[in-house]
Amino acid sequence: MEETISLKELFETLKKRLKLIIAITAVAVLASAIISFFVLTPVYQASTQLLVNQAKKDQPMISTNEVQTNLQLINTYNVIIKSPAILDIVKRNLNYEGDLNPKINVGSERDSQVLNISVQDTDPKMAVTIANETAEVFETEIKSIMHVDNVKILAKAELAENPSPIKPRPLLNIAIALVVGLMAGVGVAFLLEYLDNTVKTEQDIDRILGLPVLGVIATIDSDQLVEMKAKRTERNERRKRTRGETFGS
């Protein structure tokens, strides 16, 4: 016979394992907060923008084909910016030791001739310096690499007064940890309930053994036992008084 579980049983399982669920969730949230605030190093980002145009021509209007060519050139420039031909000069100018490639991200808006150079670093001042130096070196070197003068710096990266890191995001991490902790706690609760094969109720006997239940021994706690004794004593006292009054009359 197919076994079914009612919503009442599900809620009873959650209620019974509520402390475990709360404990797992609290541990996940606490671990996320500690890692976000005290373990992970803040990373800052600085960005600069470049405008890509074709070389100037005598024609007064820019045709659609020229714009499309500029857009295709952007993909080439994305590769050139992160190539050793540019980054080696940036490192030499800044006396920088290490790999700049993973710190730099180059992209552009859809159907746009504007290039965005974003740099991430644990030092906000260094991120600004690398972004601006990369843009200036690229603007200079592209003339000899591609034999064109079609790159202009639109906006330089600037250091904010109180820069905010882009990662980690403690509140977001804690929120994710809260959801994951709840899911893990509920999962563990149902897993423990599934693995628990002890017989607790008469329904378990009927379900597991298929035997009818002839009787049930009620469970009486100490408070109920004391209350029952008090009531019994009170009844006995009442009976004694009743008998005494009967004999006296």
From TrEMBL:
<dbReference type="GO" id="GO:0005886">
    <property type="term" value="C:plasma membrane"/>
</dbReference>
<dbReference type="InterPro" id="IPR032807">
    <property type="entry name" value="GNVR"/>
</dbReference>
<feature type="domain" description="Polysaccharide chain length determinant N-terminal">
    <location>
        <begin position="3"/>
        <end position="94"/>
    </location>
</feature>
<feature type="domain" description="Tyrosine-protein kinase G-rich">
    <location>
        <begin position="140"/>
        <end position="191"/>
    </location>
</feature>
<feature type="transmembrane region" description="Helical">
    <location>
        <begin position="20"/>
        <end position="40"/>
    </location>
</feature>
<dbReference type="InterPro" id="IPR050445">
    <property type="entry name" value="Bact_polysacc_biosynth/exp"/>
</dbReference>
<dbReference type="Pfam" id="PF13807">
    <property type="entry name" value="GNVR"/>
</dbReference>
<dbReference type="InterPro" id="IPR003856">
    <property type="entry name" value="LPS_length_determ_N"/>
</dbReference>
<keyword id="KW-1003">Cell membrane</keyword>
<dbReference type="GO" id="GO:0004713">
    <property type="term" value="F:protein tyrosine kinase activity"/>
</dbReference>
<protein>
    <submittedName>
        <fullName>Capsular biosynthesis protein</fullName>
    </submittedName>
</protein>
<keyword id="KW-0472">Membrane</keyword>
<feature type="transmembrane region" description="Helical">
    <location>
        <begin position="171"/>
        <end position="192"/>
    </location>
</feature>
<dbReference type="Pfam" id="PF02706">
    <property type="entry name" value="Wzz"/>
</dbReference>
<keyword id="KW-1133">Transmembrane helix</keyword>
<feature type="region of interest" description="Disordered">
    <location>
        <begin position="230"/>
        <end position="249"/>
    </location>
</feature>
<comment type="similarity">
    <text>Belongs to the CpsC/CapA family.</text>
</comment>
<keyword id="KW-0812">Transmembrane</keyword>
